[in-house]
Amino acid sequence: MRIFTIKNSKVQNLIFTLFWLLIWELAAKIINEPVILPSVGQAIAAMIEMAKHATFYKDVAISLLRVFAGVGLSIIIGIALGILSGLYAPVYRFFNPVMSVIKSTPVVSFIILALVWMKTSSIPVFVCFLMCVPIIWTNVMQGIKDTDRKILQMCSVYKISHFRVIKDVYLPSVSGYIFSSIAASIGIGWKSTVAAEVIARPEISIGGGMYDAKIYLQTENLFALTLIVIVLSFIFEYVIKNLIGNFSKGRKAYADKSN
Amino acid sequence: MPIKVTDLKKSFGDNIIFDGLNIEFKDSRISCVLGPSGVGKSTLFNIISKIESYNAGTIEGADKKRIAYVFQEDRLLEWKTVYENIAFVIADEKDVKHRVDEAIKSVKLTGYEKYYPKELSGGMRRRVALARAFVYNPDIMILDEPFKGLDIALKEDVMNDFYEQWKKNKFLVIMATHDIDEAVLLADDIFILSKKPAVVKVQIDAKTMSKDTLESIIREHLEEAQ
Ligand SMILES: Nc1ncnc2c1ncn2[C@@H]1O[C@H](COP(=O)(O)OP(=O)(O)OP(=O)(O)O)[C@@H](O)[C@H]1O
Ligand SMILES: [Mg+2]
To answer: Is A32 exposed, middle or buried, given 0-12, 13-18 or 19+ CB atoms closer than 10 A?
Structure first.
C-alpha cells in the first residue's frame, strides 16, 4: 500500500512537472519570438552551449563561494548573537531595532547602498549576509527561549557551569531551530546573492552573465542561467535536508520524545 | 547545619500555599514530609533549592551548600545517554568514571550506560535521576517521591543501597513521599503537612517507637490531614 502511494506521488510529480514544461513550450510556440520567450529546447541548448566554456564553471563556482561565505558568516554571527539575545534581554533590545530594520529593507536598497560602500566582488556576500542573519538570529533566539525551564532549574540546583549549560543544554535544544533556519537562509541567500551580482556585476559571477544576457537580448541565456540557479537551489535544499535527517537520527532519542 | 524555614509565605496568584510555615530539618538525619497531594511539598523543596521564589519568611542553612535534588519529574537530558546524564553533574570533578559506575550500580542500571532516556521505562528513568543525585556527594539531598514507579523488589534494593551509602556519610536528607512504608523504613523525622494553607500538623521522632506504632500514627494523621 505504502509503496504504491509513494510511487503514485512520484509519478504525479513527474506528470505535473512535464505539464508545466509543456505549457512553457506551447507559450513559446504561440509567441514565436525567442527574445521574449525562448522554448524549452532553446533554453536547454543555451545551457549546453554555456557548459562548453570554462568561464561558465568559474562563474558558478565563484557565485557558490559567495553564497557559502555569506551564509557561513551569517550562521556564525547569527548563532552567537542569537544565543546572547535569547539569554540576556538587554542584548536582545540592543540588536532588535537593527534586525527589524534589516528584515524589512528591500534587498535592492542594500545592493545599491553597498555599491556606494564597497568593491563590487564583496557586495553579493555582504547582501547575502544581511538577508540571512536576521533569520538565523530570530530562530536561535526562539530556540533559547523555548529551552525547557525545568532542565535549566535542574542545572542551577546542581550548579552546572554556564559553559556546560550552553554547550549541553541550550545548543542541543536549539539545534533543530539552527538547522531549519540554515535551510531557509540558503535559499534566500542564493537568490539575494544572484540579485546583488546582477546589479553590482562583479567580473566573475552568474548574475553578471544574466545582466549581459539582458543587454544583448539573449533571452535564452537568461533562462538557462535561471534554470541553473534553480537546479543549484534544489541541490542545496536536498543536501541540507539530508544533513538534517542524518543529524536528527543521531538525536533520535530527543526527536522522538518531543512527539 | 539544619535547614530552618521560618514564617514562610508563598502564594501563586490567589492560591495561598504557605501563610507562615515553620519547619526545621535536622542535619545528619532523614526527614520525610508527608501530606495530601497539592499541599505544597514540591513547592517547599523548590523554595529551599532556590528555584522558586517566595513572598516572605527566611530560609536558613541552604546557602552555599551542595544540594542534590531528585525532582518530582525525572528532568533528564533526552539527548544524552544514561552515563552522560549522571556524569553531567560532576563533569568538572575528579574520578568521574568510577563514581558514575558506582552510582549506576547502586540503582541497578549496569549495562544500560549507553541507553537514551527515551529507550528506558519510567522506573528506569527514575533510577537515572536517583543515580544523578547519588553521584553528586551532596551536603543536602532533596528527594521528591524518589522511588515512584519502581516495583517492590527493586524499590527495596535501591532503598537499601541508598541507606547503606547514606550511613557512611550522613548528610541532610529531605524526602517527600505518599508511601508510608518508605517513611517508616527510612525516616528519622516525619513531618505531616495539612492544608490549606499548609502547616506542620505533626512532627514525629520516628526512631523512638516501633515500626507498627509509627505506621498507625502516620496513617491516622494523614487521614485527618486530608
Ligand atoms: N508553578 C506554579 N504555578 C501555579 N501554581 C502552582 C505552581 N506550582 C504549584 N502550584 C500550586 O501549588 C500547590 C502545591 O503544589 P505542590 O506541587 O507543591 O504540591 P505537592 O504537595 O508537591 O503535591 P503532590 O503530592 O501531588 O506532588 C498546588 O495547588 C498547585 O496547584
Ligand atoms: Mg509534589
So the answer is: exposed
**Correct CATH for B3-66+138-225 of 3.40.1350.10, 3.40.50.300, 3.30.450.20, 3.40.50.2300:** 3.40.50.300
Report the DSSP pairing between strands B189-194 and B199-205: antiparallel
- Looking at all shown ligands, the one closest to residue B44's CA atom is 1
CA distance A144 to B194: 39
Question: In chain A, which among 140-169 make CB contacts under 8 A with chain B?
Answer: 150-151, 153-154, 156-161, 164, 168-169
List per-block mean pLDDT (blocks of 10 residues) for chain A, which spans 259 residues: 67 91 92 87 88 88 91 94 93 96 91 87 91 94 94 97 94 89 88 89 86 86 87 84 67 40
| Contact between chains at A158 and B92 (C-beta distance less than 8 A) | no
pLDDT score at B176 = 96
Mean per-residue pLDDT, B196-200: 81
Whether B135 and B99 have beta carbons less than 8 Å apart is answered as yes
- The reported pTM is 0.81
Determine what percent of chain A falls in helix, strand and coil, rounding each to the nearest 5: 85, 0, 15
CA of B19 from ligand 1 middle (Å) equals 15
Identify the sign of the CA torsion B119, B122, B127, B133.
positive
Minimal-distance CA residue to ligand 1 atom 1? B12
Name chain A contacts of B132, Cβ cutoff 8 Å.
158
The fold of A53-248 is MetI-like fold (1.10.3720)
Contacts of A114 (CB under 8 A, 6+ apart): A123, A126, A127, A196, A200
Give me the half-sphere count of Cα atoms (radius 13 Å) on the Cβ side of residue A170.
22
SS3 (DSSP) at A119: coil
pLDDT tens, position by position, B108-165: 999 999 999 999 999 999 999 999 999 999 999 999 999 998 999 889 988 998 998 8
Residues of chain B positioned with their CB less than 8 A from the CB of A156 = 50-51
Q: What is the largest CA-CA distance in chain A?
A: 75
Between CA B166 and CA B148 the distance in angstroms is: 19
Ligand 1 atom index nearest CA of B44:
18
Rounded CA-CA distance B166/A158 in Å is: 19
For chain B, domain boundaries: 3-66+138-225, 75-137
Centroid of ligand 1 to alpha carbon of A129 (angstroms): 48
User: For residues B30 and B173, is the Cβ–Cβ distance under 8 A?
Assistant: yes
Alpha-carbon gap: A173 to the closest alpha carbon of chain B (Å):
9
